[in-house]
Q: What sequence folds into this?
């Protein structure tokens, strides 16, 4: 299994406004995307990969000038890999509202020339992202995806594809996801948002105009997020109660334990590259996703439009952010609709993060499924 | 079961320095405490109640001028209650480092006249608290406690009593506790501390001198703590995905969900009365507690001094902060030492907070145990 090698990001501008679920519209926007493999003559072998909170269009390979910056799902996507680019044409796309190239809060605000959107960037939802992605496929002249794939928030987008554009996708592969956030999930998001919004450098979201960055808030947000991505078990295995300096310093402010050092390091890294307004937008998109709400609270009824789609759901035993029980809710809704669904509950120690890791059983399940997807492509 | 009625806090000053585990000393200090019931002639019916992060000496009853401010374990302690003050003499004591009356960071620093300790208050540990409590018992002329009782961090103190002063306590009742914090527990504490320490109003812990209070940090710390005290289930039952205003506002900064409103309210209340330096000290005391460490990592060996004590351990099924498995570690260490231990795992939906609530099975277990404790008191 070779890496896909050097890749190049592309971009596409959309001049027509995107109507958003909130009632607002995104006046015009650019999407950054990458593709891997070759679109077949029938244009029937495309797989769209949707990203989660902290990722982008850069799914696999590396850029010529950044050999160390491999894509976030490089272990999954490439020649001979479970999502085999010798057979499938894979598309990664950065969502609007993000901070990795597509139009987002750090982009110029067309309504206020010379200023960035900042806090004025409209609230975007999972459904809005799916609509934006559909327009990209229009331009790429892909009428129907062989599959849409995503983990976590990306899994929500994959599910939303089957509800909004069921005729445009054959298979939906949703990993480590949920039909909506629990109260606890929302609570963690809210603490992260309060950390950002109450940072004095946030300035109501217009920090760019003030020449500041709310890094304190971003660091805290990342620490909270990181805890929820890992399982208690894997944290104990990796860090346990190991001390940073071999013995206690008896200090409330200095680092005593390795886990503290790790979290602070992750937080510092994140605050260097992630945009605070994007963090607010993306956590809100997570909060808002709730297909059952529009179907009178009935998830089964919500999935009725997807009756001709086929699904693979995957969850991980130690994922307490989106526990297996949440995936089973989706499976039940599909089964209630007599929809074709495969479900794998992978016994893995890594918590929510497992969806990004190279676990043999997990990748085996995806490989088998995508072989079927590829074989079916006309 | 009547409430204990009106109670009065007392205080005791200790002029002799308290040697601390860190190597530092507390030069002199005052402890605030309350007592309920009557000490018998043999002075053998005393039960010490140790408090957790957010509590104090005010365990039961109410003050004459604050009828609404009932003690934090009022449902447990009183005439005819599980901890029956018709039979037992109950003592609640506020630990040094706290912000509820005993000497702590907001107290005058004897080394810097005219200034509060602030960040210069020495780091205190569970063991230091137990030593300070033992001195209070000396003054009260109580040679041996009928029992020491605590939940969560209070449970750690109850356990530490049997390791440091095993001859001074007959029974140890430790509820919803753990033999040490997991990496995840430490991680949550660390995020809370970073929220406080990086609040620009913290001023290195000397905010009193600057006329500020790091309320932003305290609010975040409380929100994080609160999430870990509740179970996912009880949060879903109490709040679920209920909206604050009936419909979505599509805002990243305004309140959308009831759970957000609840957390912000709890955070605001907490930031009004709790001291930030105390929060740092108490979370560190939690982090540091680890009796096995001094016994070469062997919890069984750590409990060898407690061989003449008798124990009741209680845990709650949905407590994910200090899960039942953590209590079972303690039970195993005791059993390995052939120490008399009873253990109850209570099926309760409320998470860690269950130890404060009036659950019939839980209170039944405590009632039966304390009847035995009282009957044995000479």
A:
């Amino acid at each position: 299994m070779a890496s896909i090698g050097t890749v190049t990001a592309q971009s596409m501008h959309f001049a027509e406004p995107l109507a958003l679920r909130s009632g607002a519209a995104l006046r015009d926007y650019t999407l950054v995307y990458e593709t891997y493999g070759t679109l077949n003559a029938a244009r029937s072998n495309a797989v769209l990969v949707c990203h989660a909170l902290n990722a982008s269009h850069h799914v696999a390979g590396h850029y010529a000038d950044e050999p160390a910056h491999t894509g976030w799902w490089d272990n999954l996507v490439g020649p001979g890999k479970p999502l085999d680019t010798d057979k499938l044409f894979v598309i990664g796309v950065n969502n609007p509202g993000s901070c990795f190239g597509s139009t987002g809060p750090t982009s110029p605000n067309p309504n206020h020339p010379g200023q960035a959107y900042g806090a004025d960037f409209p609230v975007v939802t999972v459904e809005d992202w799916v609509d934006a992605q559909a327009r990209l496929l229009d331009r790429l002249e892909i009428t129907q995806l062989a599959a849409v794939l995503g983990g976590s928030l990306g899994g929500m987008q994959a599910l939303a594809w089957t509800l909004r554009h069921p005729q445009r996708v054959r298979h939906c592969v949703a990993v480590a996801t949920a039909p909506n956030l629990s109260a606890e999930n929302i609570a963690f998001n809210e603490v992260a948002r309060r950390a950002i919004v109450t940072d004095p450098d946030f300035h109501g979201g217009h920090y760019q105009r003030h020449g500041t960055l709310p890094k304190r808030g971003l660091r805290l947000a990342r620490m909270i997020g990181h805890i929820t991505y890992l399982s208690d078990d894997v944290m104990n295995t990796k860090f346990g109660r190991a001390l940073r300096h071999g013995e206690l310093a008896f200090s409330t402010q200095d680092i005593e334990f390795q886990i503290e050092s790790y979290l602070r390091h992750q937080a510092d890294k994140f605050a260097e590259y992630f945009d605070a307004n994007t963090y607010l937008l993306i956590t809100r998109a997570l909060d808002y996703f709730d297909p059952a709400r529009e179907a009178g609270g009935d998830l089964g009824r919500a999935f009725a439009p997807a009756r001709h789609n086929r699904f693979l759901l995957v969850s991980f035993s130690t994922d307490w952010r989106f526990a297996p029980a949440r995936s089973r809710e989706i499976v039940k809704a599909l089964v209630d609709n007599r929809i074709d669904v495969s479900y794998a509950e992978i016994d893995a120690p890594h918590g929510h993060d497992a969806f990004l890791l190279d676990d043999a059983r997990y990748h085996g399940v995806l490989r088998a499924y995508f072989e079927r997807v590829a074989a079916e492509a006309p």
